[in-house]
Design a protein that fits this description.
- With 426 residues, the chain is α/β, with parallel strands linked by helices.
- It has 2 domains: 2-290, no CATH class; 317-421, no CATH class.
- Helices cover 40% and strands 13% of the residues.
- It is built from 12 helices and 15 strands.
- The protein has helices spanning 2-25, 31-47, 79-108, 147-159, 162-175, 181-201, 208-217, 237-244, 260-273, 304-307, 319-326, 352-358; strands spanning 51-53, 58-65, 113-117, 120-124, 131-134, 137-140, 229-230, 282-284, 288-296, 330-331, 371-372, 378-379, 385-387, 390-392, 401-402.
- It has a 5-stranded mixed sheet with strand order 3-4-6-5-7.
- Helix 3 packs antiparallel against helix 5 (162-175).
- The radius of gyration is 52 Å and the shape is elongated.
């Protein structure tokens, strides 16, 4: 709903700007400056939400350590979609209203006398008692009394392009129709237009009193065209007559506009610190590093199990590690009546082998481990014993008992050689 937050923030700034105008400026007689203020402050209100001051921003680092949840598809009937639908529906109605006003102007231009002078099209509407302008189109009753005064007034609207201001605020109302301040701004910009035209009209050739009396006598007519500047606008008549007799503001009164600087700075401060932006912004200055926070999801919900992603695949077990897991050492059980090994042949004394045998030696015994298959049936292979590079046949196979977690170590003492009998001399 970033679009809604943007509109709310922009209309907040628009209301603050207009409050400043009503508080300090709307009674002053520098109408051109007031017109410029209303236009540029309204445009600035919709630009400020995109501007942020980097040195006021606190950069925060968030680290999330927790389960990743997969969002389920949501229904189309959400609160955001309903608000968007209502917003677009009312905006569409206001657009149709503007188009209807343009259609009415086009209809008035049919089957009437037209003439063009100095880039301005005069459209004469007989027996209408109306006088209004829209851009370079001037609609007027040719039989109107004091026609030169009316023409002079309407020429000010055309030359200063007041119709552009009206179109601008119509567009603002279409986008911000929910803000009642827009209606007052539109009314004030029309008043400023009439103040400018009345000031230029009464500057020469006509007195302010006579001009005010003329306005009162002709405060009627067709005012159904909302996109134009009507000369005889009864809703604005009281304020126009009051401002005709208003004392001119001094030059020092213009200094009131300087108070707009702290107001704009306050709005920038709000835009940077008070509102979270879900859209791209323009930043001025560097960010201020604040702190780093680590967020960890410690909550466990029953529904989280369904939303958890599958675990990562395990690393394949190497062949060597797999073989070590399958090895089981079986200790052979020998019987008492086992046949002993035959003694080795006698060795002559003094020979190389006899010297070698005199030294105690531990013969190495090699055990071939049994192989256990996946069918959980333990099968053992015969154990081969090697002594002095001589292979000795193993004992007959029997059903061994498996001893878990024990390693068999066998040490065989070398056979003692037969000592030759001593030979008696003499």
């Amino acid at each position: 709903m970033s679009w809604l937050y943007y509109l709310l923030e922009a209309n907040l700034y628009l209301s603050l700007f207009y409050g400043f105008y009503k508080l300090l400026l709307h009674k002053e007689t520098f109408y051109a400056l007031n017109r410029s203020y209303l236009i540029f402050s309204s445009i600035l209100a919709f630009i400020l939400p995109f501007v942020q001051l980097g040195f006021l921003m606190k950069e925060m680092v968030f680290r999330y350590a927790g389960s990743i949840q997969i969002e389920e598809p949501q229904s189309d009937f959400t609160l955001e979609n309903i608000l968007l639908g209502v917003y677009l529906a009312i905006s569409s109605i206001l657009i149709l209203k503007v188009l209807w006003g343009l259609r009415y102007l086009v209809k008035l231009m049919k089957n009437v006398h037209k003439r063009r002078e100095n880039g301005i099209t005069f459209i004469e509407i007989k027996n209408s008692k109306v006088a209004f302008s829209f851009f370079n189109l001037l609609f007027i009753d040719p039989e109107m009394s004091q026609k030169p005064t009316v023409l002079k007034h309407e020429m000010v609207h055309i030359k200063q392009k007041h119709s552009l201001d009206i179109i601008l605020f119509e567009l603002i109302q279409i986008s911000s129709w929910f803000n009642p301040i827009i209606h007052f701004i539109k009314n004030d910009i029309r008043l400023v237009h009439e103040y400018l035209a009345d000031e230029a009209t009464t500057e020469k050739d006509i007195a302010k009193y006579d001009y005010a009396l003329f306005l009162i006598q002709n405060s009627c007519g067709n005012q159904s065209v909302t996109l134009s500047n009507h000369f005889f606008n009864s809703s604005l008549l009281k304020n126009r007559i009051r401002m005709l007799n208003q004392t001119k503001s001094t030059r020092w009164a213009r200094l009131k506009l300087l108070f707009i600087i702290p107001l704009a700075a306050f709005m920038l401060f709000l835009s940077t610190t008070a509102f979270t932006k879900g859209y791209s912004t323009i930043q001025f200055g560097e960010k201020k590093v604040y702190s780093a926070l680590v967020l960890q999801d410690t909550t466990k919900k029953k529904s989280d199990k369904k939303r958890l992603p599958p675990p990562p695949p395990k690393e394949p077990i190497s062949a060597k590690a797999k073989k070590m897991e399958e090895i089981r050492i079986i200790e052979p059980i020998t019987k008492k009546n086992d046949k002993t090994l035959p003694p080795p042949p006698p060795v002559e004394p003094g020979s190389f082998k006899a010297k070698k045998i005199d030294e105690p030696k531990v013969n190495k015994v090699r055990f071939d481990p049994p192989i256990v298959k996946k069918d959980n049936k333990k099968r053992s292979q015969p154990i081969m014993i090697t002594l002095d590079n001589r292979s000795v046949p193993p004992p007959p196979p029997e059903e061994p008992k498996a001893v878990k977690g024990e390693v068999l170590r066998i040490t065989l003492d070398p056979p003692t050689p037969n000592q030759p009998k001593p030979v008696k001399k003499g």
